[in-house]
Amino acid sequence: MDDNVLARHAANAYVDLLERRDWPGFAALFADDVVYEMPQTRERIRGKDAFLRFNVEYPGDWHLRARRVIAEGRFAALWLDVRVGSDQQDACVWLETSEHGLITRIVDYWPEPYDPPQGREHLVERW
Length: 127
Prior knowledge:
The protein is α+β, with helices and mostly antiparallel strands. Helices cover 26% and strands 43% of the residues. Strands 3-4-5-6-1-2-7 form a 7-stranded mixed sheet, with helices on one face. Strand 3 (62-72) and strand 4 (75-84) form a beta hairpin. The longest helix is centred in the N-terminal third of the chain and has 18 residues, at 3-20. It starts with a helix and ends with a strand. The mean pLDDT is 93.
């Protein structure tokens, strides 16, 4: 498969497996040294284990749906419909992949800056 196909596959699987809470499948998408960043909260998570734990522990009954996925080379961009209860927000996610199609970097963009919730300090570094 070429890089475009690998990146598109990784992006679609990212949303699908996260939505289904398929944690073993989700973990298999990432390089061991994956880096996850949220510019709005100035948080960074390093490593597959910490990123997986962050998602497993994330509170609330949240749901994701990809509105659009664009892939070029080893990069993919997702426009997401994110719902928590009756609240809806759009989010954009940037993914970078390895030559084997594993996700190496994620940047998660939300519409507004906010203070991170308590309880995840053990997983993140702030900048």
